[in-house]
């Protein structure tokens, strides 16, 4: 399922699958994905989407983010 509301996905999903151009770049738990994304593209995505005013994601998976 594709989830546009990332805060909702973080709270209710038990796995995150992050894809870019048809390739799976991350397959992990929401806690790990949102707090410690490993792939550079995932880190950039989170920074751009969740924290555009900061440029980098907060270390907290429950950080304030616009939804």
Describe the structure.
With 67 residues, this protein is an alpha+beta fold. It has a domain at 6-50. 36% of the residues lie in helices and 16% in strands. It is built from three helices and two strands; from the N terminus they run H-E-E-H-H. The chain has helices spanning 6-12, 30-35, 40-50; strands spanning 16-20, 23-28. It has a two-stranded antiparallel ribbon with strand order 1-2. A hairpin with a 2-residue loop joins strand 1 (16-20) and strand 2. The longest helix is centred in the last third of the chain and has 11 residues, at 40-50.
Largest sheet: 2 strands, antiparallel
Our measurement of the CA-to-CA distance between the termini, rounded to an integer number of angstroms, reads 18 Å
Q: Rough shape? A: globular
* Secondary structural class: alpha+beta
Overall mean confidence score, pLDDT: 78
Task: Show unreliable segments.
Answer: 59-67
Q: Count of DSSP E strands?
A: 2
Q: Given the structure, what is the number of helices?
A: 3
Strand order of the largest sheet: 1-2
Order of helices and strands: HEEHH
Kindly provide the radius of gyration, computed on alpha-carbon positions and rounded to a whole number of angstroms. Answer: 11 Å
| Helical residue percent band | 25-40%
Organism: Cystobacter ferrugineus
Protein name: ABC transporter ATP-binding protein
